[in-house]
Amino acid sequence: MKIVGAAAFAGALMLAGCSGGEKEPSAEQQAALTNYVPPFVMSRLDFGGVVERRFRRLDVNNDDRLSRNEVTKRLAARFDEIDRNKDGAISNEEGSTWMMARFDAQDINHDGIVTSDERERARELKDADLPTPAEEPAKASGTPK
């Protein structure tokens, strides 16, 4: 019995010694180390939701219109193109129409889904890139972007 108990104790010590106290890197850390980029897949329906949330977050004064001081630098460069009725503001409808046209232009096979390959092809063709959910404004902070 003493031998079995001693063997179990020795095994436990060996396992504790092997752990070394080093923590396994997280999935994000491992991905960064290997330069892994997850595939991008976005349906038209999901993208419509992203566009709606983005509009609401940018509209800091909640007037259902984006003025020049509420849009990001990226959109500011295209403000006049998006403002179809030239009233000096982007309505939700104008913004959605413009963004969905960009989505449709990147959906090469017209299946209602933009994949990593389609997105990369659009970049190669110098088509403007679609924003991803990660690029959405975090939250309305009351400060224009």
Gist of the model:
With 145 residues, the chain is mainly α. The chain has helices at 2-19, 27-33, 44-58, 73-76, 79-82, 92-106, 116-124; strands spanning 41-43, 65-66, 90-91, 113-115. α3 runs antiparallel to α6 (92-106).
Features:
145 residues, mainly alpha, two-stranded antiparallel ribbon, two-stranded antiparallel sheet, disordered C terminus
Give a written overview of the molecule.
The chain has 145 residues and is mainly α. Helix content is 50%, strand content 7%. The strands form 2 sheets. It has a two-stranded antiparallel ribbon with strand order 1-4. Strands 2-3 form a two-stranded antiparallel sheet. The longest helix has 18 residues. It is globular and about 60 Å long. The protein starts with a helix and ends in a 21-residue tail after the last helix. The C terminus is likely disordered.
